[in-house]
Amino acid sequence: MPRCRHLASVLGALVIVAACAPAPTPSVTPGTTRLPSATPSATASAGLAAPTELTVGAGPLPAGRYKRSSFRPPIVFAVEDGWAAGNVVNGFFDVQQQIGTPDVIAVQFADVDGVGGRGGLMVPAATAEAAVAAIRDNGTLVVVDESASRMSGQDGLNVIVENRGTAPAVVMRVPTGALSIDPGRKLWISLFDTKDGLLAVMVGGSIAQWERTLGIAEPVLESVVIGGPEGASPAAADPNRIARR
């Protein structure tokens, strides 16, 4: 019988607080950046084999397309060699590189129930605009940049944050628990209003290796299709480009 535990999010040291789930592998903490350029990648083009379902304990992932059909909205994405499955739980999943190191990289997807507002206290956030406003007021996070976003035909908002403090900083809540980022980590968050609720697509990494993090994460972001195999094509645009700051 699974027991409640804290799940360390590798990508920006995201932590899923008090999550009840079958011992998932640590996930990665997202970071601060601009979204990737939005030209469709070859791995996400039509005509390729059907995507493979991402499952708990999948471990290292062969290059190819993957989906999380139980996630809402359904998500399809592609990875090259070097990525591994991280946390795969209700309302949250991610893929990671350099797991177990201070510079772990993660691309994460979350169904947002709330965000860390003033003082890190959780507040409701039904829309991308409300979520960004609350994060801006957080105080335990430093907002590095804000911009418009577009991914897979969806318009949204980007916000990039850093934790320059000495303790984990709460970012948001998902169905499984609360997500925080550790000191010295950056998180790029792209928020989208969908018919299934507020969606967050995130990239995390260490501040020290941020440029490298963005370069590694960009092909994955460019391949994302929101809404499953029948969703819009993965075309992005300049607004979705990860801001390298």
Task: Produce a short descriptive summary.
The protein is 9% helix and 43% strand. The protein has 2 helices and 18 strands.
Helix content: under 10%
Total domain count: 1
Strand content: 35-45%
Question: How many DSSP-defined strands?
Answer: 18
The biggest sheet amounts to: 7 strands, antiparallel
- The coarse overall form would be globular
CATH class: Alpha Beta
Number of helices: 2
Uncertain stretches: 1-46, 235-240
The average pLDDT score comes to 80
Instruction: Please list the strands of the largest sheet in the order they lie side by side.
Output: 7-8-9-17-16-13-12
What this model shows, in words?
The chain has 245 residues and is mostly beta strands. The strands form four sheets. A seven-stranded antiparallel β-sheet has the order 7-8-9-17-16-13-12, with helices on both faces. A four-stranded mixed β-sheet has the order 4-5-6-18. The chain has helices spanning 128-136, 210-223; strands at 4-10, 14-20, 27-28, 52-53, 64-68, 75-79, 84-89, 92-97, 105-111, 114-116, 122-124, 142-151, 154-162, 169-174, 177-181, 185-194, 197-206, 225-226. The chain has two helices and 18 strands. The chain has a single domain (4-240), classed as Protein Transport Mog1p, Chain A (3-Layer(aba) Sandwich), CATH 3.40.1000. The model is unreliable at 1-46 and 235-240 (pLDDT under 50).
Considering the chains and any ligands shown, give keywords for the structure.
18 strands; mainly beta; single chain; 2 helices; disordered N terminus; 245 residues; four-stranded mixed β-sheet; Protein Transport Mog1p, Chain A; seven-stranded antiparallel β-sheet
